[in-house]
Amino acid sequence: MQTLAYGFPKLGKQREFKRLLESFWKGGLSEEEFYQGIEDLKLKRAEVYQANVDLFPSNEVSLYDFILDTAIMVGAIPGRFQPYQGLKTYFEMAKGKQALELTKWFNTNYHYLVPEIEKLEFSLLENFPLKDFLFYQKHGIDTFPKFIGPFTFLKLAKLIKPSAEGIKVEKINEPKVFEEALERLNLVYQEVLKSLAKAGAKTVLIEEPGLVMDLEPWEWSLVKKSYEALSGDIDLWILTYYDSVSDYSSFIELPVKGLGMDLVSNQENLANLKVVGFPKDKVLIAGIINGRQVWKAKLEDKLREVENLLQFTQDLVIANSCPLFHLPVSLVGEDHLPAELTNKLSFAEEKLEELKLIKRGLEGDQEALNLIADIQRKVQISFGQKEEINKRVSQLTEEDFTRGIPYSERIKLQQKRLKLPLFPTTTIGSFPQTEEVRAARAKFNKGEISFEEYQRFIKQKIAEVIKLQEDLGLDVLVHGEFERTDMVEFFAQKLEGIATTKQGWVLSYGSRVYRPPIIFGDVWRKAPMTLEEINYAQSLTSKPVKGMLTGPVTILNWSFYREDLPKEQIAYQIALALLDEVKDLERAGIKIIQIDEPAFREGAPIKRKDWDQYFSWAIKAFRLCAKANPETQIHTHMCYSEFNEIISYIAQMDFDVISIEASRSKGEIIEAFETFPGWDRQVGLGVYDIHSPNLPTKEEMKEIVRRALRILPKELLWINPDCGLKTRRWEEVIPALRNLVEVAKELRQQF
User: For residue 163, what pLDDT is reported?
Assistant: First the structure.
């Protein structure tokens, strides 16, 4: 038996990747210096792999996104980015003025760039897998080249199709079109595989998480045909993860040498393995160590699991269940956490050590067996429970999940109270977190300035941003969130039952990182969390200032959560804490409260058959914390989700206004409302792509609004950026918002 690990975080223990990327973008590094830094990072990662596991991949350190790498590898570069000019084009596609659309990677908080295919023509443009394999080979390091498989790439891509109404962008759902695209794509993959075989690679790992999606029989037929074409030059191991393969029998019949399955996220894979069996001529890559949660494995249980797996195959490789980039790099340095919690935690580096321990235990290493028994004992110790919180959840009734009066009546009360103009303008919540803001926070955390000094600084920033918004002419203001590091971490630090880390950074996209909190116990609110800053901001203006909260589903989905309670119960605990905050804001006279749920779609199971169960409690958790007075206007925000797929569930959340991304998708997201009869809620159009440093023109913004007006009445539309402005610079934000306000004023004159 061998051990395999893949997807180890590229971020680095000191966030080296983020620093390299941002320094290069700012002109602080030459291209040569940038590449040298990336190579140093690759070698450090290889050392960690080599110390713990038998097998590991190359081609894992993408310079931005691995799906973007695949698109460039196969020459899928839209005409607006031509001619191809290496890194310049690469980063234009990632974050330029007309960048590719960002969306969530399966049901995770990683964002990938959606490939756009203009023609069903592909060619090998950049052989990234070969280059990286040769890099490690040059340093005497043996790796398995790894890349995204052709089926998954096409499944996630979008086809650009001219139409009478302009350009249409849609998934490739037509069987004949998909088959033709896959056949042509396979020719490029064949070239890559032949080049790797010639360079000395014996085995290639091909990631095909698309095989766990709901697939039609024709799709499985194409997958089989595809791998018949690709097999031959080199051994192929297919990795699937995040859920069970949708057709186990078809999966095990694929003409490849190894098959990888996630045995953590689901029960179906193991059940199918027991009932149907496993081919004797294939390698079973068993994903038994959880790649998405920070909890230590019960290693004695894992030993028994591996012994059982050996009944089905003698050619077994044990691995992580999915890529490890969903985890922080290392637990080292998190000495501030309670010992009871630390004993239960395992980050990416520790996951590799777990694989190593399991192998040593199976080989009869007594020291390893003693360690395994000690770990099993510690992880079973529970703490952080609060009985009154569970009692409060158990006493909830259906009445707790409803607003009291319908939206059609609420909106009249809200309009009378708010007196907003047509096309009201606002922002999503945060304003630039400049070096000055970060420096002040760092000084406070180090004890170099007092709490009072830090509070005075935050109030000064709030006063400045309120004045700026009034000068710009925005209709609904925000306090800027200068006191918040991250929209989830901020609340995690205010709530009981949740821990936060010092260095537990995880990449979300590009160089954007966040530190997921760790929900270890029952969650409750000790004191108001946002009241002081919102009250102060509202005292400075006669315009409404939004109370800004992060929703329960997003706090849950963007945290590592305890596994001894159903997610539903944890969500209700968080929702009740937020409801207490909503009531405090209302009592203080706050007229608009925004409860952000960007992770609402992300947490949905991959298979549609499981959606109703998930959305049932997710909707109720939102409604529970949004049970405000009817005259209080409840906003929510969602971004970079497959909005169209879940609009029927979103409509059940019973908010008053929803703001959505509409800039990168060029307004195509608005089509969702066309297919949903009777949509009556207000919609905030994200007409300013905040993930790009480029200044949007008024005409570009107006085009998105015009597209929306074809489907939605003008009375329902708000104008806003597509997301928070925290990562942008003031010199970008101010002219963009000035354009946004002018667009709204011109539209009011027109209509």
Answer: 64
17 assigned to some structural domain: no
CA distances from 111 to 66, 393, 503, 648 (A): 10, 33, 21, 23
Name residues whose C-beta falls within 8 Å of residue 98's C-beta, 6 or more positions apart in sequence.
Answer: 80, 81, 92
Output the six-digit token pair for 180. 């033709």
Kindly provide the residue ranges of all beta strands, DSSP E only, lying in 45-104, ordered along the sequence.
57-58, 102-104
- What are the two backbone dihedrals, phi and then psi, of residue 360, each rounded to the nearest 5 degrees? -60, -40
Q: Where are the alpha helices (DSSP H) in 400-530?
A: 407-418, 435-445, 451-472, 489-494
| Dihedral pair phi/psi, residue 318, rounded to 5° | -100, 145
CA distance 204 to 235: 6
Six token digits for residue 61: 């350190």
pLDDT tens track for 664-679: 665 667 778 888 888 9
How far apart, in Å, do the first and last CA atoms of the chain sit? 71
Rounded CA separation 714/420 (Å): 13
User: In this structure, what CATH number is given to the domain that contains residue 542?
Assistant: 3.20.20.210
- Taking the C-alpha atoms of residue 99 and residue 691, their distance in angstroms, rounded to an integer, is 9
**Closest C-alpha among 61, 16, 20 to residue 42:** 61
Q: How far apart are CA 64 and CA 51, in angstroms?
A: 27
Q: What is the mean pLDDT of residues 204-220?
A: 98
Question: CB within 8 A of 394, min separation 6: which ones?
Answer: none
Kindly tell me the number of DSSP H helices and DSSP E strands found in the chain: 27, 24
Contact criterion met (CB below 8 Å) for 215 and 173? no
Q: CB–CB of 689/696 below 8 Å?
A: yes
Query: Is 210 part of any domain?
Result: no
Closest residue by Cα to residue 460 from 480, 430, 490, 439? 480
Give the chain's domain count: 1
- At 674 the pLDDT is 81
| Cα–Cα distance measured from residue 500 to residue 485, given in angstroms and rounded to the nearest whole number | 12
Alpha helices per DSSP H over 53-174: 66-73, 87-95, 128-138, 150-156
For 345, the token pair is 């935690």
Q: What is the DSSP string of 261-323?
A: EESSS-SHHHHHHHHH---TTSEEEEEEE-SS--BPP-HHHHHHHHHHHTTT-SSEEEEESS-
Cα–Cα distance for residue pair 283/268, rounded to 1 Å: 19
Q: Region 229-247: what's the mean pLDDT? A: 96
Dist. CA 751–CA 747, nearest whole Å = 6
Residues 273, 249 contacting (CB under 8 angstroms) = no
Residue 154 corresponds to which amino acid?
A: L
Whether 503 is covered by a domain: the verdict is yes
Q: State the pLDDT at residue 668.
A: 66
- pLDDT reading at 661 higher than 60: yes
Helix 299-309 to helix 348-362 angle (10° resolution) is: 60
Q: pTM for this structure?
A: 0.93
Lowest mean pLDDT among 310-314, 378-382, 673-677: 673-677
Residue-range definition of the domain harbouring residue 745: 387-434+466-750
Rounded average pLDDT over 13-19 = 97
- Residues annotated as catalytic are 691
In a domain, 358, yes or no: no
The single-letter DSSP state of residue 630 is T
Contacts of 321 (CB under 8 A, 6+ apart): 241, 262, 263, 264, 265, 287, 288, 289, 290, 291, 292
Tokens of 496: 């009981």
User: Which residues lie below 8 Å from residue 621, measured CB to CB, with a gap of 6+?
Assistant: 551, 552, 553, 556, 568, 571, 572, 574, 575
State what percent of residues in the chain have pLDDT above 70.
98
Residue 138: per-residue pLDDT: 98
> In which element (H, E) is residue 709 found?
helix 698-709
Q: Is the pLDDT of residue 639 over 80?
A: no
